[in-house]
């Protein structure tokens, strides 16, 4: 099998030095004529030369790589978030490495350590399982820039989030305006800090409207479609006319549970979700939900991290993006 194309092969065919090829391909070839630059790039493409990653790092002083740690790679929210990071990173010629820790602190600590070993330029932490000890002993100790996303509870360094408290209040206010007086909440059994803010927004909006709030109105389960499906019977036992689900996945799981019991949304139960994932628009009926600018959040996260990489001593940034109610067909007047 033919060996890997080397930088010396490009240099020999172009009739220039290895240093010349290296400088041109690493964006530092301004002192060479345009003809020489074009010739080197053309030969690179003809030979299929790909620079050695470690050698390039030594020359550039940067891996042009960022790490992203998320709690669940199967969750559509994080898929959209990562797409936003990827698009922004591509524009900056960065490569994102995405790792899913599944809420395991030990695994995510290991991921952080391995990313540092691979000399990533920075880290986006979207998982609540990455704790202060990991940040202090690995990221801060090694001078690695990082950014937190709203699921992580730490108030440390740069952060990009949305107003989860307001989003929940908007959802419940919508149901109250439709005439619902007994409103349940489909909640998660292992809430992150932003999900806890949604619970508080739900409670405060009910109380401000003078509506009943009892413990049985809050139904908990795993944060997934299966969790919503399994909670269906308990939701019905609340005798609520409407439900606010802590995320769209749980709402969609509840759809199936109701359907199997011969019930219809919204005729028998109005439902409002949270996140506005792609699927929410295509279920039947389309789901009323709180939209977060998830794709934009990914882009803002990368740009903010890049600013931290370039200006390590700048003041910490706390960026909060807006949310909005998207009314579809899963909620009705009573």
Automatic annotation (TrEMBL):
Alphabetized GO MF terms: DNA-binding transcription factor activity; transcription cis-regulatory region binding
The keyword Transcription regulation is assigned to this record: yes
Keywords: DNA-binding, Repressor, Transcription, Transcription regulation
Domain HTH cro/C1-type: 9-53
Ion transport listed as a keyword: no
PANTHER family assigned: HTH-TYPE TRANSCRIPTIONAL REPRESSOR PURR-RELATED, LACI-RELATED TRANSCRIPTIONAL REPRESSOR
Name by which UniProt lists this protein: Transcriptional regulator
Organism listed in the record: Ligilactobacillus agilis DSM 20509
